[in-house]
Amino acid sequence: MKKLLQFLTTALLAGLFFATSVVPAIAAPVGPPEISWEMAGAGIVRFHLHFSNPDPFEPTLEVSGEIHSQQFGVFLPDYGTIGTFEVPPIEPESFFDVFFDVPLSNLPPSPPMSMRILTSQAPSVECPPPMWVGNVDVFWHGPGGAGQVKYHAGDIGVCPGGAASCLHVISSCMDNMTWMINNPCGGWTVTLVNQDYTPAPTVLPLNWMGWICVTAGANIPVGAQCCFSVDFWCNGVKATVNVCAFACPCETATQQDTWGGIKNIYR
User: Fold this and answer.
1) What is the SS3 string spanning 164-233?
2) Of 13, 119, 130, 245, which has the most beta carbons under 10 Å away?
3) Comparing C-alpha atoms, which of 265, 250, 256, 263 is closest to residue 116?
4) Which bin fits 260, alpha (ψ -120 to 50), beta or left (φ > 0)?
């Protein structure tokens, strides 16, 4: 009987040791958030970070981070801090959203836009809807991991069958830079040009600046939308600019060299 009790005690201790020696499950990493923004009233921009955990079994651990604004372009320094955030552990197949409402005056100005001297058309209504055009830079770190993601986004209005609408873009790459346009839409044309509107070379010089220009064929219906991206490479690092062009209702404009008097229609 004594030997049986010793055996049971030994087995129980061994079981406890095994239970406490099991390696805990590894938490799912916190991945890059989906980033978007919209106008939330006159002069207010609402930024949205959507963190998700697609893992079906493991939660994430917590992270904290910051979001910064930048001018519209690529490889640019941060302009200012939009805010800081805390993301708690996210359960499997769940998500966590972060929002910031920021006065437009606290952000870098949207880039200028221009219309070539080709036609006398201009948007007859506010098109596209008012939107801040720029970049955001998001950092996060903590037990759930660390990372950084930059998002560059802009929109532009185009007159179907009319002149090219162009969105100004700048860079601070201290080396030669290459580029490629992705996802052109049928009936739309996207080109990259220099500051003087000459075609951009395959290899761009240091600190290049110029324009992303878009035209829409006369058969493109008003209200149609074309979203595309332009990739830039600097020292092996890629930056992607995302642009959505909108086909706008247009009428004859009295000023057609640049946006000038019609700029306020767009922004």
Assistant:
1) CEEEEEEECCCCCEEEEEECCCCCEEEEEEECCCCECCCEECCCCEEEEEEEECCCCCCCCEEEEEEEEE
2) 245
3) 256
4) left
* Surface-to-core class of residue 61, CB atoms within 10 Å of its CB (0-12 exposed, 13-18 middle, 19+ buried): middle
The one-letter amino acid code at 91 reads E
Whether the predicted pLDDT of 70 surpasses 90: yes
pLDDT tens track for 42-60: 899 999 999 999 999 999 9
Tokens 């955030």: give the residue. Answer: 85
**14 in a domain, yes or no?**
no
Q: Pick the closest to residue 140 from 89, 77, 66 (CA basis).
A: 66
Residue 227 lies in a domain: yes
Quote the domain boundaries for residue 110: 34-266
**Across the strands, what pairs with 215?**
189
| CATH at 107 | 2.60.40.2310
In a domain, 215, yes or no: yes
The total number of structural domains that make up the chain: 1
Q: Give domain status of residue 21, yes or no.
A: no
Residue type at 92?
P
For 204-263, how does the pLDDT look when each residue is reduced to its tens digit (9 = 90+)?
999 999 999 999 999 999 999 999 999 999 999 999 999 999 999 987 654 444 443 333
Residues 6+ apart with CB under 8 A from 221: 160, 247
Which position has the token pair 């995302």?
Answer: 242
